[in-house]
């Protein structure tokens, strides 16, 4: 598989994300990366970008203490978004038949175990 052109990777890596709000969703961890402080979560509610699975950045490593995969939690998640340039939107549409206006980043604020 051929990768994206260098300019695409540069634009995405330099995206300036702006905080747009916090959501409270239920779901369960699929994978927990303690070293990089990240967690993949399956949500029951649709995320702002339409997905149900997302990787959350975890700024406070203590939030991961005792978290179990496959157990249902209520997650408070900070949502950040960054717009894509017209050039990148056109490229994704032309080359991949995908329409994307912006990209998202999700950050874990807190979580509490259900039940």
What attributes does this structure have?
alpha+beta; 2 helices; 115 residues; five-stranded mixed barrel; OB fold (Dihydrolipoamide Acetyltransferase, E2P); elongated
**Rg from alpha-carbon coordinates:** 16 Å
Q: What separation lies between the terminal Cα atoms?
A: 45 Å
Total domain units: 1
CATH architecture: Beta Barrel
If you had to describe this structure to a student in words, what would you say it looks like?
- The chain is of the alpha+beta class.
- 17% of the residues lie in helices and 43% in strands.
- A five-stranded mixed barrel has the order 1-2-3-5-4.
- The radius of gyration is 16 Å and the shape is elongated.
Sum this structure up briefly:
The chain is an alpha+beta fold and 115 residues long. It has helices at residues 6-13, 86-96, and strands spanning 18-33, 38-43, 53-57, 73-83, 102-113. It has a five-stranded mixed beta barrel.
Secondary-structure blueprint of this entry?
Layout lengths: L5 H8 L4 E16 L4 E6 L9 E5 L15 E11 L2 H11 L5 E12 L2
Parallel strand pairs: 3-5
Antiparallel strand pairs: 1-2, 1-4, 2-3, 4-5
